[in-house]
Amino acid sequence: MLQYASKRLKATEEELLDALAGELTADHIFVISEILDHIEDLERRIAVFSRQLLTKLEPYKPMLQAMQTIPGIDRM
């Protein structure tokens, strides 16, 4: 598991191993569940926003396609 740890972490290898050896309490599971629900809600909202934006941009499709030929400009 340590191989997947971000190099930006300040924790030592020993601290990471201690954290991985701990147990998840009901409170931990609740918080993780809430965070995952929040992430799923944000992803849903982003998808709705993206669809709305693409719908509004439809009249400008030819211009947007021309712009996408410029290096560094990509489709949303």
From TrEMBL:
Q: What protein name does the entry list?
A: Transposase IS116/IS110/IS902 family protein
